[in-house]
Please model this.
Amino acid sequence: MNIKKLERRNSSMDILRIVAVFTVLSVHFFLHNGFYSEPVSGLGPIEGIINSITTGNGDSLHGPLMFLAVGMRTLFGVCVPLFMILTGYLMSKKELQKGYYKGIRKTVIVFILATFACMIFKSIHEIPAAKEAFYSFNFGAMFEAIAQSGKYNFINYLFSILDFTGANYSWYIEMYIGMFLIAPFLNLAYNKLGSKKHKQILVVTMVCLTILPTMLNIFNFQSAEWWVTPTGSDEFQKLVPAYWMGLYPLTYYFVGAYLREYGLRLKTGAAAALFVGTLLASTVFNWFRSYGGGFKTGIYGFWYGFYPFVLSVLFFLLISRIKTDNWKPGVKLTLWRVSDLALGIYLCSYIFDTLIYENLRMNVPIMVDRVPYYLITVPMCFLFSAMLSFVLDVLAKQIIRLYEYLKKVVAEQIQGGNLIRWQDILFIVLMCFGVILSIWKLRYGFGGSDEAFYLTVPHRLSLGDALFSDEWHVSQLSGFLLIPFVSLFRMITGSTDGIMIAARVLYLVLHTGAAVLIYTRLRKYGIISVFGCVLYFIYTPYNIMALSYNTMGIELLLVAGVLLATADYSKKLLPILSGLAFAGAVLCNPYLIVCYLIYGICVGVHYAIRNKEMRFVLKSDMFSLRTFLFFTAGTAGLAIIFLIFTLTRTGVGDIFANIPEMLKDPEHPPISFGKKVETYFQSIFNMTPHFKYVLYGYFAMLAFMIFDRKRRLHRAVYLCLSCAATGISLIMLLPGISSTTYNHIMLPMLFIGITSYILLEKKPRELFAAVFVTGLIYSFCIHYGSNQMIYCIASVMVVANAASFVFLGQLLKEMRETPDNLTYTTASRVLSYILVGIIIAFQGGAQITAKTCHVFWDSAPDALTAEIKQGPASGIVTTDANVANYNNMYTDLVPLQMKEPGNILFMSFETWPYLAMNDFPYGTFSAWTGNEQGENTLSRMRTYYEMNPDKTPKYIYIPKSAKWDFNTLLPELKSKGYSVTETNVSYQLEKK
Model:
């Protein structure tokens, strides 16, 4: 305990703060007990008491009790004004200096903690099932009920803080934060006034602008009837301007500053008498204005009303005159500690108001009968709120101490050159969060046929089928990479039960490993690389957490680029591994072979310019013949294995004979190169209705920046504008954040990446060429082979984004080391730092929201409550309807599973049944037969069986829910020698 500080402390201000918060709770007593809807009626206070005594009629006390309630409510109207006056009194000497804004830290932290407390309470109390489970100590059911409500998720908690609705009484904090921010400037205005008279004029002027209208603009002089029954009309004559009434907090602030400096020449006895007289007169006035209706809270009675103003100033004056200098330290310390809890008491009182007054209303149904309970309920609410506030206060102080400790430690680490250690710790912490989030998400969703299809290609290859001839889908090559997993899974388990969830686990393991590997190569670029790698990890294309040509292509290309860009070119291991990863990426998207060809051309250019005096990326040893050959060796390694596998199962002639049929896929029709280029840029420009305007603005800035020869002296401005373009774009994309189209949120970070690279003095050129440019080329390659337009284009921008974060980190480092040449250099740099932080948080929040709220072609996670218990999808949680449909088909397949294995064809959109049949060979050109169940698909099947008669199906399964023309299809199949067995679910055909 700081004895000297305690001795200097004016404990009367602590008393004022305690009384002020108690009066706030007192106002809430009337708010929660029906006072405002209770008619102000009955006999006057004296008449009513006399009548009750003489007649014994208890109903006569209704009037006196209502008069008492009106008087109490009038008195307690000083609550908020007291806080505002106290703010001016205590802060009037504050100056704008280093460390000033730290003074609001505890207030903000307590507010956030109180918001969480109130939100937790509301999530339980406002949901009947959760409330019942809580009081039954069934916390599992409680959390389930909260989750199912969908009202209290992470986003709701976040926005409840930002919009000041989480803690129901937090409007005052919204006002106080603004008051705190402008207080030094208000003090400059006040303290620069040269005399007491000038300051009096300031206070009087503010009173006339904000308080006087509430005293003069509240009467109707044109109606005599109004003066008899003022509740009959709310039409009043305006006598003075009322435009500036909203500035009333400033009025109270200046009043507090004036009282601190000069006080009031008013004797204490006179002030007390004036206070009592004003209170009585105001009570009578409120009784008169409200009689016959509910209590009128006109402008005269709000915080800026004339009588709350007068009462507050007098009350403040009286309490401030209490002499506390000779009080015992224990008493003063107690007052200090309790007053320090005032904010938490105020914010947390909502919890106990709700609990206490809910029971009071239930047990005391008549409003006026609740008035005497004030003496019990308000002190009780104060006590419980103080206890909770004490906990929050301790937490807030510990958070501040932890922050200061970490700040000190980080500063010491920076001075000692050990910042990288803390950077690694931050990466580990954020990755742990990402992994936990991914593990939670892993089981959710059974929408669409895509995920199962990714496994059908390696599954049929593990059964002996060949690429190109047996499988016709254009994405088939990526299935080669999954053969080891599918074969090993089937060998260990003896079936395919649970293979889909196992593939998700494998994806998570490999994705985690890739993110860690990428970070270890990029960590030298500073702390921003942490966010780049973690955000890369959190992102999953389309939110399909599976090993697909999308996820593997992105993973392998990024790993290949990072390894090549960060390699020691005097050594050979990393270029070889980079080539190996690149070969895997080419299997996921064969058009990526163009990157290899461009690499070869760049090697030639390298030798043409290497002796010239110029700074150009192609002069790097990354483009030396030695590096290129080692890269080629890694590529060739996987290519040779792939060719051996392919050519041992099918001949070259068969491959060339089947490729034309593959390219006839109606979902991927042949489109000219020029048209693809056109649609590439069109889909980007039309990503949202107004996105093109962001592009126009950014490209205009980009052109200006490129022609600005002193652009490196104006970096903060260009970075701020790029952040603005990124932020506006993300806002435009928010409506689709919880839909299958959410991939497009990965595109806007390119703005910052491009700007940062251009502004850099020391450019990481290898990373630009191997990762950023390659990522952009990939976006066109995937568009060229896909029908998903902007969604596939944006999905692979995550590759370029990894480099964008590095460029950004390097730019921020250079901005710290060499200042810009701007009039407001420091302010511009700080603003750019703030905007960068906001954008990173915005991007992270968008990705986390997408991951937590969206499931591919399925409902949101909180609506997925049923688990699949059998077959390849075993362990997946989805909707009851999906589980029922799955179980119906799976049960219907059991008789087929008991038959002798033979080629099987499922004429269905569903692809998982092929996995369910385990050892049955595929009798189809692909498990994905397309979205059209009509003649085009049948024609492709006929062609396929003509070219591959050995794949003619022995068994055919046709769900009744399919859209085939059964009147034509079934007779045709019967004519080909198939017998038909009809079940409730399907038609099952077997070759005789």
Observations:
- The radius of gyration is 37 Å.
- The first strand starts at residue 866 and ends at 867.
